[in-house]
Amino acid sequence: MKLWGGRFAKQTDKLTEDFNASIGFDSRMYQQDIQGSIAHAAMLARQGIISEQESHQIITGLEEIGQELEDGQLQFSVAAEDVHMNIETFLTAKIGELGKKLHTARSRNDQVSLDVRLYLRDEMAELRKLLLVLEDALLKLASQHLDTIMPGYTHLQKAQPITLAHHLMAYFEMLRRDLGRLDDCRQRLLSMPLGSGALAATGFPLDREFVRQQLGFIEITRNSLDGVSDRDFAIEFCSWASILMMHLSRFSEEIILWASEEFSFVTLDDGFSTGSSIMPQKKNPDVAELVRGKTGRVYGDLITLLTMMKSLPLAYNKDMQEDKEALFDAIDTVKKCLLVFPPMLLTSRFNQEAMARAARGGFTNATDMADYLVNRGLPFRDAHEAVGKTVRYCIDNRLTLDELDLATYRQFSPLIEDDIYEFIDVKACVARRRIPGGPAPEAVQAAIEEARQWLAGVQNEG
What we know:
about 450 residues; mainly alpha; Fumarase C, Chain A, domain 2; Ribonucleotide Reductase Protein R1, domain 1; 3 domains
């Protein structure tokens, strides 16, 4: 007999039982379910709803069940539908009829909302640590490449010379924002829904504040309808995960390009590459490609939750059972990506010579030539035109700006002197951009030092 089967005259069809069950995926929340039930049992005794002795027996039984599940001594049953009813079934089998008192003044509706929040809180703490590890890896790499000149791009066309350190720190800043979003999401997650009941709270004199304190929540939910039907926290988490994965995917795309022979900017470690079953020479950037591919998977998890919730009337609906697989998949996918990304980066070898050679091509110093003319009093638009004509001449004659002789330079502007060659050297172009946020080594070094201080502070907060 089902725990809810009193009003039914017929057994659940096996097809319905299999279709309805969620134990295949929500079983991973058993520790959180037990944690919430222990706090609930303690509160019931505190309020005189059950006796202290009964509460003690229930809590002891739940603790034993938690350990037995950890040790693999208990097996979940599809017949019991979900993690909540499985735990209650185990408890009743262990301590007898008293186990049936645990669900007093509680519904699976507020119970599952609690469990998911507790589970997500724990997983977010782990993801936060992994994100900080990746941030630290970026700082280590950036510190090693303050003077590694490379081309910066717009439209995937060479634009201006920068450094690899500056490029890496751009991703550090993306991840810094991701950490802020994660911490912000956590604040809204930690509203304690237990006590909302099925939708209309309960007539029992519960102490919701006591349960909140026991479970480490920031506040209690303020409306019982919202308490059981809210999944904003799961949607917000998947939104956070999607933005993070977008950043990792952008980085992965660049690694994939850089690892190609056409770029030859980076050589990935053998331990983070794969080969071909037919082409013996191949070394493929499969880790970066999988991160790029898994980004779409996480986007799908977000869309699943948004679509599931978009037409649901208040309060709880069975559709909401579908929240867990998408949420769990997003958690698992992001975790795997964050685990593999730092070692992939730290074991990579960056080809400084190839990067510098690329930075010297494509007229990346053309803007600096324009700045040179502006410094000599020419309006920028006129300088822009003069440099554009100079570049056109170089393209037609297969030359670089560095290879033009002074007489040819002066055909485009009489303001140009011998010092033009020093001014448009790519290292000088980078070094000149020393304002905060710029690519000059001294500016990037200052950014790294500030980032290390920030990282130490947020690590302590965690």
